[in-house]
Protein: Inner membrane protein
Amino acid sequence: MGRGESVEPGSPAGLGRGPIPIAGAVIGGVGLAVQSRLNGELGSRVGDGITATLASTSVGLLLLLAIVPLLPVGRRGLRLVHAAVRGGELRWWHLAGGVCGAVFVAGQGISVGSVGVAVFTVAVVGGSAVGGLLMDRFWGGAGAPRRITVARTAGAAACVVAVAVTGRGAWSGSGTLALVVLPVFAGVAIAVQSALNGRVGAVAGSPWPATLINFVVAAGSLTLALTIRAGFGGDLPGHLPSEPLLYLGGLIGVGVVSVATLVVRRIGVLVFGLASVSGQLLGAVLLDALTPGPRPSVATFAGVAITFGALVLAAHPRFRRSETVQDVRSPVSGPR
Structure:
C-alpha cells in the first residue's frame, strides 16, 4: 500500500490495489452489460425510458429495504452516515450519487434499443474516462488524490479514441448522434457517482448503506422527473410488461453499485471505470452478436481492443509510481 492511502473501516484487510479489486470491477462491468440490455428492452416495451428505469430501480430498492436494515453492519453504517452528515464530515451532496446513477440507467433505457449495447458501452467509456481522470485529480473520492500522469492521460485519451472509432458509423443523423451523446454524459455521471458512493462507503465501513442510499436517491430523482413531466402535460405509459426477467436489471444494479462502492477507493475512479467498462465490453459484444438487434462492427471490436489497452496502461504497477498526491486531508474528509 502506497503512501497517502489508508485502510477504511470495514474493508477487507487484504483488499489492496492489486488484481482482486480490478477483477471485481471487471465482473461488475459484465453485469452492467446485461443490465443495459434488460433496461433497453424494458424501455422499448414500455415506450418510455424514465418509467422503465424507475421500475427497474424500484426492484433493487425493495430488495435493499428488505435486507440492509436487518444486517447489523447495515444498521451501524446508516447510523455512522447520519452522524457524519450531522457533524459535517459528509455534506448532503455526498449522498446524491443516486442522481448520477439515475442518469446512467435512464440512458440505458433510452439509447440501448437504438444504438446497441456495444456502442452505448463504448460511448460511456469516453465520459467515464475523462470524468474519472478529473475526479481522481481534484477530489480523490474516499482515497488520496492521484496525479494526472502521462500514463493515466494516455489511458483516458485512448478511451476517447475508442468512442470515436466505435461510434463513427452510428453518427449518421442528428437523432442518432443525440443517442450517442447521452451515454457519454452518462459516463461522466458514473465517474461522479463512483466517487460519491466510495466516500459514503468509507464513512459507513460497508458498501450496503451507501448502496441503499444510492437507490433511494435514484428512485426519488426518477419519480420527481416523471412528476414534473406529467405536470407539463406529458403522457405516462399505460402498463408495464409482465415478464419478470425484464426487471432483473435492478437486482444486477445492487451488486454493481456495491462492488463499485467497495473497490473504487482502492484503485481510483479512473482505473475502476476502465476496468468496469472492459467487463461491459466482454458481455456487450457477445450480447449484440447473439441476440436480435444491431450487430457489432469491425469498429466496435477495434474500440474493445483500445479500451483493454487503456486499462493495462492506466492500471499497470509500472505506470502507477508516484501518482498519489500527498494531501493533508483525511481519506474521508475531502473538499468541503
In short: Confidence is low (pLDDT under 50) at residues 1-16, 326-336.
